[in-house]
Amino acid sequence: MGQDNITEFILLGLFSGEDAKVACFVLFSLCYIAVLSGNLLILVTIRGSCLSEKPMYFFLSYLSFMDVCFTSTVAPKLISDLLAQRRTISYNGCMAQMFYAHFFGATEIFILVAMAYDRYVAICRPLHYMVIMSRKACCVLVMASVIGAFIHSILQVLIIVQLPFCGPSQIDHYFCDVFPLLKLACTDTSLLIIVIITTTGVLSILTFVSLVISYIIILSTLRTRSSTSSEGCRKALSTCGSHITVVFMFFLPLIFTYVPIADSVSNDKVFALFYTMIAPMFNPLIYTLRNTDMKTAMRKVWCRDKLLEGK
Q1: pTM of the entire structure?
Q2: pLDDT digit string (tens) for 268-294?
């Protein structure tokens, strides 16, 4: 099993310059607070209202939970390292961080697929919607997402723990990920890079393409029905628009990270910032600003809590 003499790694972080570190510490701290507060607001609102009975919001609550978990595996270390003199992470801590980042990230991908399927059934097979998207079916989809993500993540870790690390121990990234670690291995990893590109990279592309195709089918179905119910059509378009925005914000940086240019680690760090912090920060805004149901539920849940406090 890998490790050899290395017991810890040094994370080089986002950049080497000292001047911007305090400003970035403040900026990323605010971003992390926004991710936590925005997603927990959505989670509590859905769970505290009748929206939790609707499949779309059932999935959205899990998506928000995954956003919080995913960002929390990366952001606290990134933020604390900006002011730290020595930015180290233990070997075991590094493996754990890589596992959880891939686990929560992959679960989020599968939940986005489940949400697209939910919209497809709702718009293309409306008469069978309640039967197909029963609570049991929704729970099965979430469980399948978790199991699929676990298998994906454990495979990434198994690839890395088999490798010998004998120095240098500097990871050119702000968290432990597969490509930066492969660069430090004291053996030829070209075959493993191809394996990861064909699994994670191609899987990301295929998922992204299938999601885009499903939304094209949904939108074309809506277009043919636009004359029948303009209000329902407008609501469905708004919902699909939110989903498409989230899919693009999450998948495009992910694809650029895991598809073929494994040497562009400096760019990978910027792309990774998009799917680890920026997308989770904007998700609550995307899903609430254009969503009447969410805004109504928020008013009911939070105003009701204030009224109860006042009694």
Answers
A1: 0.88
A2: 788 888 888 988 998 888 888 767 778
